[in-house]
TrEMBL record:
<dbReference type="Pfam" id="PF00226">
    <property type="entry name" value="DnaJ"/>
</dbReference>
<dbReference type="GO" id="GO:0042026">
    <property type="term" value="P:protein refolding"/>
</dbReference>
<protein>
    <submittedName>
        <fullName>Heat shock protein DnaJ-like</fullName>
    </submittedName>
</protein>
<dbReference type="InterPro" id="IPR011990">
    <property type="entry name" value="TPR-like_helical_dom_sf"/>
</dbReference>
<keyword id="KW-0143">Chaperone</keyword>
<feature type="region of interest" description="Disordered">
    <location>
        <begin position="153"/>
        <end position="177"/>
    </location>
</feature>
<keyword id="KW-0346">Stress response</keyword>
<keyword id="KW-0802">TPR repeat</keyword>
<feature type="domain" description="J">
    <location>
        <begin position="7"/>
        <end position="63"/>
    </location>
</feature>
<dbReference type="InterPro" id="IPR001623">
    <property type="entry name" value="DnaJ_domain"/>
</dbReference>
<dbReference type="Pfam" id="PF14559">
    <property type="entry name" value="TPR_19"/>
</dbReference>
<dbReference type="InterPro" id="IPR019734">
    <property type="entry name" value="TPR_rpt"/>
</dbReference>
<dbReference type="GO" id="GO:0051082">
    <property type="term" value="F:unfolded protein binding"/>
</dbReference>
<dbReference type="InterPro" id="IPR036869">
    <property type="entry name" value="J_dom_sf"/>
</dbReference>
<feature type="repeat" description="TPR">
    <location>
        <begin position="125"/>
        <end position="158"/>
    </location>
</feature>
<dbReference type="GO" id="GO:0005737">
    <property type="term" value="C:cytoplasm"/>
</dbReference>
Length: 177
């Protein structure tokens, strides 16, 4: 166990073996006891803030310990890696020219050969997203939303992509209204 976790557990008066339920229970009890509105003690505000910080830090430590790692692709053979590197500039040109359908077709073909490659999966999700955005500009809202969903399912571990998809969804909803 880390020294940081021990320190925050000690602040809440808990043993090193405390689980999430014990942490939450202790936090609630101490927060009620030391809340400045309920406790006239001049140290109540400082103690209450310390309790809050301890609880928040323990939550962060718990979340980071239980976070699922992004799946890694198994090593591919040299020929497939060379194919992927050869494909990358061609894909960049298609994306720069706004040729989304062609970019999607080529990336889907590459993904069939490298189904577990996270980078190819990311490229495909970006192609789907850009196609959806282009369809949105063309007032084809339903098709755009379908491509946004494809992008979301293709690369679910990419938070930046998910944010961009949500922003595009909001734009699609706003155009509908």
């Amino acid at each position: 166990m880390s020294a940081e976790r021990s320190r925050w557990l000690q602040c809440l008066g808990l043993p090193a073996t405390a689980d999430a339920i014990a942490i939450k229970t202790a936090y609630r009890q101490l927060a009620r006891q030391w809340h400045p509105d309920c406790n006239p003690d001049p140290q109540a505000t400082a103690r209450f803030q310390e309790i809050q910080i301890a609880y928040e830090r323990l939550l962060v430590l718990q979340e980071s310990a239980t976070a699922q790692p992004v799946p890694q692709a198994p090593p591919a053979d040299a020929a497939l890696i060379a194919l992927k590197r050869q494909f990358q500039p061609q894909l960049q040109d298609l994306l720069a020219d706004g040729r989304w359908a062609k970019a999607i077709a080529l990336t889907e073909a590459l993904q069939q050969r490298l189904p577990d490659d996270w980078e190819v999966r990311q490229w495909l999700a970006i192609c789907y997203l850009r196609q959806g955005q282009a369809l949105l500009v063309q007032q084809q809202r339903q098709q755009a939303i379908a491509y946004f969903e494809k992008a979301r399912r293709t690369d679910p571990h990419n938070p930046r992509l998910q944010q961009e998809i949500q922003a595009s969804h909001r734009l699609a909803s706003a155009r509908r209204a």
